[in-house]
């Protein structure tokens, strides 16, 4: 399938590993120029080197070591590359825990990373995309937006706020100018985020890693965790020319774990 996005330029956040890396890899394989951003420079260098080996059609790979959840971090990204045709927003989810322990600072930090930062990136890029007649914005959120998880209350709240915002703006005038905005809601993927959740469950239950993982996988009809490259494939399709009729949607990729009809 030809995605018709070779030569486009993408910003992929949190792309040194995990789901962000999976998206960056899928895009460079389609000939998309990619700027990846994350906080750890060593991990970014390693990720950039791997991406170079799979890039096609002359696509370039750049990286910026910065915290995208800060104004300074976003300024560094746009100083390195002022315009993007594709933006994949992604920030590490807030820690799990008991809602009784979260103070105002914890809530503000969650909203800053998982609601306001994607909105700020949309604000900074959407008009340029509209003027050029093409734009794709993908927000990596969580299956918890669809089926909230009690210990992930900070994520439930902040990401749900972003979901509500996107539902409106995606259906505004930008849609007729070739710009789509969609959210991908991952379930349990084999990433550092899942390993943190597993560790938390081990501490609370006293069970071994193997026992916790077996219980987690039992809730998934395909009986395994997702892999970042599977997530990246969906992301690349939604970024493609073929997906121009899809906007304002929340797409679950969870191995069938969500049991609802709608």
TrEMBL record:
Organism placement in taxonomy: Bacteria, Pseudomonadati, Pseudomonadota, Betaproteobacteria, Neisseriales
Highest taxon, organism lineage: Bacteria
CDD domains tied to this protein: BKR_like_SDR_like (cd05344)
Family indicated by similarity: Belongs to the short-chain dehydrogenases/reductases (SDR) family.
Name of the featured protein: SDR family oxidoreductase
Organism of derivation: Vitreoscilla massiliensis
Range of residues in the leader sequence: none
């Amino acid at each position: 399938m030809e995605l018709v996005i070779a030569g486009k330029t993408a910003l992929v956040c949190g792309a040194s590993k995990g789901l962000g890396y999976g998206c960056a890899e899928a895009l460079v394989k389609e000939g998309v120029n990619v700027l990846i951003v994350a906080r750890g420079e060593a991990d970014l260098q390693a990720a950039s080197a791997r991406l170079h080996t799979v890039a096609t059609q002359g696509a370039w790979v750049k990286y910026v070591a910065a915290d995208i959840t800060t104004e300074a971090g976003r300024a560094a990204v746009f100083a390195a590359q002022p315009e993007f045709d594709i933006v994949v927003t992604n920030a590490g989810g807030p820690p799990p825990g008991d809602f009784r322990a979260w103070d105002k600072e914890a809530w503000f930090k969650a909203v800053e990373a998982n609601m306001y930062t994607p909105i700020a990136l949309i604000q900074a890029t959407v008009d340029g995309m509209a003027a050029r007649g093409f734009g794709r914005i993908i927000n990596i959120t969580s299956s918890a937006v669809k089926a909230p998880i009690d210990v992930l209350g900070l994520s439930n709240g902040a990401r749900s706020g972003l979901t509500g915002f996107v539902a409106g703006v995606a259906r505004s005038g930008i849609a007729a100018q070739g710009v789509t905005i969609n959210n991908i809601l991952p379930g349990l993927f084999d990433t550092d985020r899942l390993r943190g959740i597993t560790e938390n469950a081990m501490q609370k239950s006293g069970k071994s890693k193997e026992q916790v993982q077996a219980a987690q996988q039992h809730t998934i009809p395909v009986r395994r965790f997702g892999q970042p490259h599977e997530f990246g494939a969906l992301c690349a399709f939604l970024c493609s020319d073929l997906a121009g009729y899809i906007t304002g949607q929340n797409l679950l990729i969870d191995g069938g774990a969500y049991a609802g009809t709608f």
